[in-house]
Amino acid sequence: MTQGMPSSGVAGNSQCSVLGGAYTSVSGNSLSVTLRLTFSASFGGTKSIYLMACDTTACSNWVVGGAWGIPTSPVPPLPVSVSPNSGSDNTKTFYFDFSGVNGYTDVNQMYMFFNSAFSGSNACYLSY
User: Structure pTM?
Assistant: First the structure.
């Protein structure tokens, strides 16, 4: 069984926000929840992830489920890959992959260049 929260709206505080909806799934005795979170840079640093579960009469103890590092400054989008990444030909279709921490909308400019050395001089220099 899978259930979802409406995907519109944002819930949160000055440290974090839930983006879109929350989704739950059940498997045997386990209930799982999926949340897409974004953290503010002012909340940056390594944080422990604490977990607790309750039924109608009692709660478990808090346990540390993991750790998460939050950047203290915005994380720029990153180049991921180029395909093909080797070969030779006068004409070829290339696929350039870039990724943003909050999704593809973070990427608003991409640069690529071909040259025998790391220099834009006398290079095939591209910007999209």
Answer: 0.56
